[in-house]
Design a protein that fits this description.
2 domains, alpha/beta, transferase, 5 strands, single chain, five-stranded parallel sheet, Rossmann fold
Length: about 350
């Protein structure tokens, strides 16, 4: 895909000038000032409009690598959590309600999911194969997943979304995400392996070794982002990459969540150079690959609360900070007025 232009630099400069002219010491609101200017640049207007239509889209899938002992929970938790989100009782639902965001979930690769609306499964591709043994996706499965994410983004933008968040759901998904970060940044398993859902030391060492096995299996094919995503990713991760590229190509900014979303953001920025400028990191998770991916993208997290829930939950929390930044730019008086 072709590169995209960054958010409007003239509007960003206008927002900074407005902030400097307000009745406060210049720079006194710290990062709130730059965040408000970023939102203004993305919207193309100063001051920016409040974020009243924020949408979290959770991409769910099973990962066969979980059977290798890289997760503290069984794969059966994934469909149960899909039902939890649909019932409005998952962690991301509670946090989203607190900031006025909406949550939807799509099954891209859950092996067995019963009793859900057809809309949840309309983009189903299939579970990801074990990445240390074989490629997670075929080329056709990859393209279907990327196209699904783009369609989901297009529908959200058409419906009025101002800000989008990709959430993740799937036992074992920190392993392919860590593999993608390692392959993207030329790192090894020990650099990116984290405890995920709560691994002990022995399981963590097993995870690092498995990551090295997967990276060695793929070899130089990982240089190409599409081949990397097919070999080491999953349908849910690929769909989220397509969602991110679809959002930024349509001029809608993204808040990036933890490890999985940060890995997806790295791929999105490779597929659509310049995508990173339409992103802000909502939080930094406890997974080591998260910080590495965000540093690679030049994204400084808004929050660092030691969270590792996934689902888009950390990114959702940062929406309150973004709206506070917007309120300050819209409502604080000019020094010349007092």
């Amino acid at each position: 895909m072709n590169a995209i232009q960054p958010p409007n630099p003239d509007v960003r400069a206008e927002a900074h000038a407005l902030s400097d002219a307000q009745a406060k010491p210049q720079g006194a609101l710290g990062r709130l000032e730059s965040l408000a200017a970023w939102v203004a640049a993305c919207q193309g207007e100063c001051p920016p409009r409040p974020l009243t239509d924020v949408r979290v889209v959770v991409f769910a899938g099973d990962h066969d690598v979980a059977a290798a002992g890289v997760s503290a929970y069984p794969a059966e938790v994934t469909p149960a959590m899909v039902h939890g989100i649909l019932a409005g009782r998952a962690g991301v639902n509670a946090l989203a309600r607190s900031v006025g965001a909406t949550v939807s979930v799509y099954d891209l690769g859950v092996r067995s999911l019963q009793g859900v609306p057809d809309a949840v499964r309309r983009f189903h591709v299939g579970p990801a194969r074990a990445i240390h043994v074989e490629d997670a996706l075929t080329p056709d499965e990859l393209e279907r997943a990327l196209a699904a994410g783009d369609t989901i983004a297009a529908e959200a933008v058409e419906a009025g979304a101002q800000l989008l968040i990709a959430g993740d759901l799937g036992i074992g998904n920190t392993t392919p995400a860590a593999a993608l970060v390692a392959a993207s940044l030329d790192l090894r398993g020990a650099d990116v392996a984290g405890r995920g859902t709560g691994l002990d030391d022995e399981s963590l060492a097993r995870k690092a070794a498995l990551l090295d096995e997967a990276l060695s299996r793929v070899g130089d094919r990982a240089i190409d982002p599409r081949q990397r995503l097919a070999a080491l990713g999953s349908a849910d991760i690929a769909a989220a990459v397509g969602f991110m590229t679809g959002a930024v190509r349509r001029g809608v900014p993204l808040v990036v969540d933890g490890l999985i979303a940060s890995a997806e953001a790295v791929l999105a920025d490779e597929l659509v150079p310049g995508a990173r400028y339409w992103m802000v990191a909502g939080h930094r998770s406890t997974e080591p690959g998260c910080a590495l991916a965000q540093m690679h993208l030049g994204l400084e997290p808004i929050l660092d609360l030691g969270m590792r829930l996934g689902e888009g939950s950390g990114a959702v929390l940062s929406v309150g900070v973004l709206n506070a930044a917007i309120a300050a730019l819209r409502e604080v008086a000019l020094l010349s007025e007092i």
